[in-house]
Amino acid sequence: MLIQLIANHPEALGPIVRNTPTWVWGMLTALMVLGISQLRDRTAGLVRVSLTPVGMTIFSIWGTVAAFGSSPVFGQALGVWLVTTTIVFALLFRTQANARYDAATRSYAIPGSVVPLALIAGIFLVKYTVGVELAMAPQLIRDSQYALTVAALYGAFTGMFIGRAARLWRLAYRAPATMAAA
Question: End-to-end distance of the chain based on CA atoms, in angstroms?
């Protein structure tokens, strides 16, 4: 809906951006700084590699509840969010992490990647777009197709964040057993 509006009436973009609360742009800036920081190779401990997935999961749940908490399809939306999160998590968890864990220092060597930045930008754009669309067309809150599609998007992002982190957690979990066997 928003994309169609902007495609057909590009002049609508100005008022949408002007009517966006200032704190949203601050949040976008902070999230982009976080994503950009992950473009470089880095080392991080378990807590550090867990913060972004936990934060983005909270952002995803907040997006779903804020958009559809009072919707008659909220239960279904939450179910779709959970199922999608689980499926995407399971698919990612099966793959290997592109990082190394050093049990002696209890830290990860993580290569830089654009993926976290893309995921962070994606979840922000979904939240922003849904907020604008619901402000322009509040009746969408009762549209099950819309609600379930948005919930699936939030769930996919959550599954990606948690799945990527779980691959790192698995490295730390396996490290002591590997060292003992060696």
Answer: 58
The pTM assigned to this predicted structure is 0.84
* Opening angle at CA 32, ends 29 and 38, nearest 5: 145
Nearest to 165 by CA among 99, 82, 87, 81: 99
| C-beta separation of 38 from 112 below 8 A | yes
Q: How many Å apart are CA 163 and CA 103, to the nearest integer?
A: 21
Query: How many whole angstroms separate alpha carbon 125 and alpha carbon 20?
Result: 13
| Strand 42-45 relative to strand 100-102, pairing | unpaired
DSSP, residue by residue, 33-75: HHHHHTTS-EEEEHHHHHHHHHHHHHHHHHHHHHHHTTSTTHH
Phi, psi of 139 (to 5 degrees): -65, -15
- pLDDT tens digits, one per residue of 37-58: 999 999 999 999 999 889 888 9
Encoded amino acid at 5, one letter = L
Q: Which helix (H) or strand (E) holds 42?
A: strand 42-45
Residue type, 10: P
Q: Do 95 and 172 form a contact (C-beta atoms < 8 A)?
A: no
